[in-house]
Amino acid sequence: MKILILEDHPIFRFGLRHLILEKWPDAKIGEASSLIEAYPKIKSDNWDIALVDLNLQDTQGVESVSRLKRVAPDLRILVVSLHTESAYATQILRIGAKGYLNKENATEELIDAIQKVISGKLYISTSLAEHMTHLLIDRNAKLPHETLAVQEYRVMLQIASGTKIIQIAKDMSLSPKTISTYRMRILEKMGLTSNLDLAKYCTEHKLN
Question: What molecular functions are annotated in GO for this chain (predicted)?
Answer without folding.
Answer: DNA binding
